[in-house]
Amino acid sequence: MACDINGKYEVANYRKPLITTISGLQVQNVAEFLKMIEALDEKKNLTNLGKYLSMLPVDPKLGKMLIMGAVYRCLDPILTVVSGLSVRDPFLLPQDKKDELAEK
């Protein structure tokens, strides 16, 4: 990956070494989403929030909820909400399983 003189990486350069390529539109959409949740500033640099979000192994929206829950000292209820949102609904079957059940 190439970085500029200041040691900052360009977001679009991350997609070059991947096995399956990502379109420029997808990168742009992700950058806009990260700006919306204030993880990136207008110059596409990580904010302090973005640095903390990059350390969490969860979806950025859920990570922001966790961080804000810690900041506002209401982490217990936020942990409950985030844990519920971070897993897939156990009552939904994948489409291939539905087809198998329909055949029986």
UniProtKB/TrEMBL annotation:
Swiss-Prot/TrEMBL keywords: ATP-binding, Helicase, Hydrolase, Nucleotide-binding
Family indicated by similarity: Belongs to the DExH box helicase family.
The UniProt record lists the keyword Nucleotide-binding: yes
Signal peptide: none
Pfam families per the UniProt record, alphabetical: HA2_C (PF21010), WHD_HA2 (PF04408)
Organism: Iris pallida
Source domain of life: Eukaryota
Protein's UniProt name: DExH-box ATP-dependent RNA helicase DExH3 isoform X2
GO CC aspect terms: nucleus
